[in-house]
Design goal:
The protein has about 230 residues and is α/β, with parallel strands linked by helices. It has two helices and eleven strands; from the N terminus they run βαβββββββββαβ.
Length: about 230
């Protein structure tokens, strides 16, 4: 099927986003010259395919449902934030808060992700081909994060039921996060997510980080020292 092509150097972004929301024929869409524009392909709610040929600004593919969005470059703050379903693939670097509050779907980042990747994750899956910045997975409630590189300070701070799998080194664990033994189910999970992201690492190279569950209930006698 031939793609519908938009050039943001000639067509206003508002017009492009409106077309994306009313693309009844479901044709693939290619967006040229994004030049770091914000809010590209947000709130999509149909199973369409969108390729963005270049770097994007803030909140690209936010609130995504069902759509398959590929970014052939880097992404600014909050890519795929509050994603419900579908797939978002960043072929470069992702800035702060990638996948924030995602409730479903799959976010793939080929390069590194900056601070707070997966913050407040609520059920989505994130696979990072490189490393992540400090406070990634902060208060992550559900879902899974695969990190093929390293993690900076305070990974998994205040985790709930989300699970982190990391291949590289961890500078420091966040409050209430701990390493746990990998099970066969964990290896299977890692293998499946790596395959979806088309990364070829051995699941046996990954370690599991999960919550120690000491912060689930307030302890008035702890003097706020956790």
């Amino acid at each position: 099927m031939d793609s519908v092509i938009f050039d943001l150097s000639q067509t206003p972004l508002r017009e492009v986003n409106q077309f994306l929301h009313h693309n009844a024929n479901g044709k693939p869409i290619k967006i040229l010259n994004p030049n770091g524009a914000h809010n590209i392909a947000i709130g999509l709610d149909s199973p369409i395919s969108v390729e963005i040929a270049g770097h994007v600004g803030y909140y690209a593919a936010g609130m995504n449902q069902l759509a398959n969005v590929t970014i052939d470059g880097n992404a600014g703050t909050g890519v795929a934030e509050n994603m419900m379903s579908g797939r978002v693939h960043v072929k470069g670097f992702a800035s702060v808060s990638a996948g924030a509050s995602a409730q479903g779907g799959l976010l793939i980042i080929d390069g590194n992700a900056s601070l707070r990747c997966g913050i407040s994750l609520k059920g989505g899956d994130i696979v990072v081909g490189g490393s992540v910045g400090s406070f990634s997975a902060f208060m992550a409630q559900a879902g899974r994060i695969i990190i093929c590189g390293d993690a900076a300070d305070a990974i998994g701070d205040s985790l709930y039921e989300a699970v982190i799998y990391i291949r590289g080194t961890v500078k420091s664990l966040g409050a209430d996060a701990q390493f746990e033994p990998m099970s066969e189910t964990d290896y299977q999970t890692v293998g499946e997510l790596l395959a979806k992201a088309e990364f070829c690492h051995d699941p046996k190279e990954f370690k599991r980080i999960a919550s120690a569950k000491q912060l689930y209930h307030w302890n008035a006698d702890a003097n706020q020292e956790y």
